[in-house]
Amino acid sequence: MPSRSSRLSDFLPYQMSVSTNAVSDLVAGKYRARFGLKIPEWRVMAVLGDAGALTQRDLVGATRMDKVAVNRACKMLEDRGLAARSPNDRDGRSHHLELTPAGKAMHAEIMPLALSMEQQLFSVLTAQERRDFKAVLARINEQVRKLERLAPQHAPERDN
Amino acid sequence: MPSRSSRLSDFLPYQMSVSTNAVSDLVAGKYRARFGLKIPEWRVMAVLGDAGALTQRDLVGATRMDKVAVNRACKMLEDRGLAARSPNDRDGRSHHLELTPAGKAMHAEIMPLALSMEQQLFSVLTAQERRDFKAVLARINEQVRKLERLAPQHAPERDN
DNA sequence: GCCAAATGGTTGCAACAGGAACCATTTTGT
DNA sequence: ACAAAATGGTTCCTGTTGCAACCATTTGGC
Question: What CATH class has A21-124?
Answer without folding.
Answer: mainly alpha
